[in-house]
Amino acid sequence: MSDKKRVSRRQFLNYTLTGVGGFMAAGMLAPMVRFAIDPVLQTQEGGDLKSVVSVDEITNEPQRFEWTINQVDAWYESEIQKTAWVYRNDNDEIIALSPICTHLGCTVDWASNEEYPNQFFCPCHAGRYTKDGVNVPGTPPTAPLPMFEHEVRDGMLYLGDAKSRKGA
Ligand code: FES
């Protein structure tokens, strides 16, 4: 008589079902795991500088420029519109200021109030900033307007993230 072990019908069915079940479970779980860790696998665009305007267009008077960036927030990707007040100061340096009021986040305008023609003015609570974006003491904002990091390449102004500054 042979010593070979024979696989019973029950064992064969068990092995087959376990194998097929495991294969199907792996097939269903793999996309879920990939989806769960997807943001980790993505390269982030945050911090990139974007081309905004030709430097020839920048004057000594603050002008408002807009551009868009792609924002990836975990699984959600969207296009965000950004805005900056840009001008050349007396030393011919380019200054790019955020228009977001540091009091409660309204949008400031340049020279929009007749009484303060050379200042940024926030219409929400009459907040004011000097041309370099420093908050005027005695008005609601307690910090200067954030300043965009910038770079000039091939005659174009590139802007990055707006950085907060210490209060006046
Ligand atoms: S939000 Fe600008 S002064 Fe209040």
Automatic annotation (TrEMBL):
Molecular function GO terms recorded: 2 iron, 2 sulfur cluster binding; metal ion binding; monooxygenase activity; oxidoreductase activity, acting on paired donors, with incorporation or reduction of molecular oxygen
Compartmental location: Membrane
InterPro entries linked: Rieske_2Fe-2S, Rieske_2Fe-2S_sf, Rieske_Fe-S_prot, TAT_signal, TM_PetC
Membrane spanning residue stretches: 12-33
Keyword ATP-binding: no
Gene3D superfamilies in UniProt: Rieske [2Fe-2S] iron-sulphur domain, Single helix bin
Entry's Gene Ontology cellular component terms: membrane
Domain Rieske: 72-159
Record's keyword annotation contains Endoplasmic reticulum: no
Keywords associated with the record: 2Fe-2S, Disulfide bond, Electron transport, Iron, Iron-sulfur, Membrane, Metal-binding, Oxidoreductase, Transmembrane, Transmembrane helix, Transport
Topology term for the membrane: Single-pass membrane protein
Subunit-level organization: The main subunits of the menaquinol:cytochrome c complex are a Rieske-type iron-sulfur protein (QcrA), a cytochrome b (QcrB) and a cytochrome c (QcrC).
Job description of the protein: Component of the menaquinol:cytochrome c reductase complex. The Rieske protein is a high potential 2Fe-2S protein.
Matching PANTHER family: CYTOCHROME B-C1 COMPLEX SUBUNIT RIESKE, MITOCHONDRIAL (PTHR10134)
Family: Belongs to the Rieske iron-sulfur protein family.
Protein name: Menaquinol:cytochrome c reductase iron-sulfur subunit
